[in-house]
Amino acid sequence: MIEVKPLYYFLAAYEEGSITAAASRCFIAQPSITHAIKTLEASLGVTLFERSKQGIKPTLDGNKLYKLASDFLLQNQQMQQAFAPSNTIKIAMYIQPDINIEFYSQIIKAINRLPHNIEISIADSIEQAQIAIIDEETAPSQFELTIINKECYKLLVRSDHSFAKRKKVKIEDFEGLSFIERPYCTKRKAFNRLINAHNVSITYQGKATHDLQLHSIVKLGLGVAVIPESYIINDDQLTYLPVSLTQPITRSIALAYRKLPNDLMLALKEIALSQKELYRHRQK
Asked: Which of 8, 157, 218, 261 is a good FRET partner for 87, with 20 to 30 A between their CA atoms?
C-alpha cells in the first residue's frame, strides 16, 4: 500500500526537478525526499527519475505517476472534507515560500469577507491546495490562474556599500561581488544563467533560509542579494537598486484555484482582478 506523504514529496521533486529544491520547498532534509522516492520506486517496481549532476528528470513512469498522484491527493483531501460534520467550506491555501504574503495580505482578507463560511488552512505543498498564491511559471496545469502582480528584482546592498549612491546597476557590475543566495527563489536558475551569459564571476558567502534573515545578513555587511521588489522595506541601513537589463528578470504572481464551487471560483477571480488593479496603481 502506498502512503500519502511520499507522494507529496514525489510531486515536489517532480515539479522542482531537484532533490535539494524539493527538500527546501517541503522544509525537510534531502534524505527524506530521496527515501520517499526510493520507497515509491520499490513499491511500484519502476524507476521514477533519471539522475544526473544537472538534477533529476522524470521517466515515462514518473510522468504517469505524477498525473495519478496529483488527482489522488486532491480527491483524498476532498473526501475528508465531504464527511466533515460542518457547513464550513474548508479551503487549503498554498503560499509559495519566496512570496511575501504580507504584501498580498489583502487577498486573504477579501476571501474572508466573501458571503461563504470559509475556513482557510495553510497547505504544505501545492498538491494539497485548492487555492494558491504562486509564481505563474510554477503553477501546475490543473489550476486556473489570474495574474495579480508582476514583480521585478532589485539588488539589495547595505547603505554604506559603494553602490548605494547609484540610481541603477548593470549586470556587469556584479563582477566580484559576494552574494547571499536565496535557494528557495524560483528564479535562481534564470539568475545563474544570466550571470553565466554575461561571463560575470560572483561568489556566494552563504544561504538565507528566508527573506527576513536575508535582510539582516545584508545589514551585517556579509554580502549583497537579488530580491523581489515586494520585499522592499523602509530601512535606513538598506538600499535597493534597479538592475538595468534588456530583458529584466521578472515574475508574475498569480492567484490560482481549482475544483471549487462555481460561485466561489467566480468570486476568487473577481478578487484577483480587483487586486491586480490595486497593485497596478501602486506601481505608478
From this structure: 8
Question: Can you read off the three cell numbers belonging to residue 7?
Answer: 507522494
Residue written as grid cell 520507497:
39
| Cβ-based burial of 85 (10 A; exposed 0-12, middle 13-18, buried ≥19) | exposed
- Domain covering 4-75, topology: Arc Repressor Mutant, subunit A (1.10.10)
Spatial CA neighbour of 254 closest among 154, 126, 138, 174: 138
1: Cα separation from own chain's centroid = 31
* pTM across the whole model: 0.64
Q: What are phi and psi of 221, to 5 degrees?
A: 80, 20
Q: Tally Cβ neighbours within 10 Å of residue 43.
A: 12
The C-alpha cell at 13 is: 521533486
Pairing label, strands 131-135, 89-95? parallel
Domain 149-250 class? alpha beta
CA 132 to CA 154: how far, in whole Å?
Answer: 25
- Beta-bridged to residue 135, according to DSSP, are 253
Cα distances (Å, whole numbers) of residue 18 to 132, 189, 200, 277:
22, 12, 25, 35
pLDDT, tens digit, 9 for 90 and up, residues 150-160: 999 999 999 99
Burial class (CB in 10 A: 0-12, 13-18, 19+), 54: exposed
Please identify, in words, the CATH class of the domain defined by 77-148+252-282. alpha beta
pLDDT tens-digit map of 20-60: 888 877 767 889 899 999 999 999 999 999 988 778 999 99
